[in-house]
Design goal:
about 300 residues, mainly alpha, two-stranded antiparallel ribbon, 15 helices, globular
Length: about 300
């Protein structure tokens, strides 16, 4: 249950990052580059809340993260990471600093990027609201603390990056991970929105049966991921051949064998534990676990519709 709610948030937030980057640069970018940007943002010190009504100046980002640290954290080849990071620098998104690379404060002051951080924040709040409505135990409030939205933004970034840690070994590439993860998330959308079904299939080892899951067409999958049809079709065909996906109706589903594999069950358990850890970190930031809706900046984001 927790994993499906978080998966919806991870996908929606990751796609928001891709969209903002592509609209800013006026060209397509690899999905990988958006993930590297989030990793750099997480590693940049001095990031302050600067949304409307929270602060009047742009955030100060004076420290950063080394390319080697990004590569090690995400288990990617150094040269691959270096190439993507240098592209972000050349595009004016990031900058070199004494301890590596950071996101430029001028970048974060742009309206589109400010909106992106607010969106990441509200996606995180939405996860907590949904968990609360499902009856999942939440940490206690720290009633003596003022609410710090920046802590929630940092938590959101942590959750978005998590799949590239705990399920990366189950996939041949990041691109396959993103495609299969999206198919699984889309397939479970009916269950994710249904409290009774969510509880019935709420554990990492209780994958819902195929007849409760909804296939997604490759055309819709490509449109959702902002990728070319040929790229997505190639990844789908590879995932079908390896037993991760299966054709169903006019689309594809994640296979029972994949969803119930030891690697994915263990990943689900890790995701649940990681989410609990992230939530505990929000307590000192004054998060209102008794009423998460009080913490929204712009309101609850819409669910991905996969239309």
């Amino acid at each position: 249950m927790i994993g499906r709610i978080v998966s919806q948030m991870q996908l929606a937030s990751g796609l928001d990052v891709v969209r903002v980057l592509e609209e800013h640069l006026q060209r397509k970018i690899p999905f990988d580059r958006a993930i590297f940007l989030l990793m750099i943002l997480r590693g940049s010190s001095g990031l302050r809340a600067f949304c409307n009504g929270l602060a009047s100046t742009a955030p100060s980002v004076v420290d950063g993260i080394s390319i080697n640290a990004v590569a090690m954290s995400l288990n990617r080849p150094f040269e691959t990471v270096r190439r993507h990071v240098h592209a972000l620098i050349d595009d004016g998104i990031c900058q070199r600093v004494d301890h590596g690379v950071s996101v430029r404060s001028e970048t974060l002051a742009l309206p589109a990027f400010a909106t992106l951080l607010r969106s990441l924040h509200d996606h995180m709040v939405s996860v907590i609201e949904d968990l609360s409505q499902m009856g999942v135990p939440l940490p206690p409030n720290h009633v003596d603390r003022f609410y710090d939205p920046n802590a929630t933004i940092a938590a959101a970034i942590d959750l978005v990056l998590a799949p590239f840690d705990y399920i990366r070994d189950a996939h041949a590439s990041w691109l396959e991970l993103v495609v299969v993860h999206t198919v699984a998330t889309a397939g479970a959308r009916k269950i994710t929105r249904d409290p009774e079904l969510s509880r019935r299939y709420g554990e990492a080892d209780t994958a819902p049966p195929e007849d409760l899951r909804e296939p997604i067409a490759i055309t819709v999958l490509a449109r959702t991921l902002r990728m070319s049809y040929s790229t997505v079709r190639r990844e789908v065909e590879s995932a079908v051949a390896s037993g991760k996906l299966t054709r169903a109706g006019h689309g594809v589903l994640a296979t029972d064998a994949y969803l119930r594999s030891a690697a994915i069950v263990q990943a689900g358990a890790r995701a649940t534990a990681h989410c609990a850890h992230v939530l505990r970190r929000l307590g000192p930031g004054g998060f209102r676990f008794d009423n998460p809706t009080h913490c929204y900046l712009d309101g609850k984001p819409a669910f991905l519709t996969f239309d």
